[in-house]
Amino acid sequence: MKPKSIKPDELNKIFSELKKGEESAIGSYLVKGVRLQISKYNLSGAERVQLLYKRRRAQGMCIVCGKKVTKKNPSTDQLYRLCEEHRNKIDKGSK
Length: 95
Known about the structure:
It comes from Leptospira kemamanensis. The chain is about 35% helix and about 15% strand. The longest helix has 14 residues. It has one domain.
């Protein structure tokens, strides 16, 4: 994932989010040619995957491949967690 380019004055916002303990501060940032990476320390593999899936869902991406999800679940009116290809393989294939 490419680092998000931010201005130096936007660092204050990120640091205040860190002080509050919000996960929205986690990420990779580019400030004046310097990459700043903020991540949790000593995560297990399952915890890393959980954070990745949570971030992808929030951005409307397939949790498996990262493609943009376009279809919504008609009963919940929310985007599906999987793209059409993986829905056919995983969800519909198990029925």
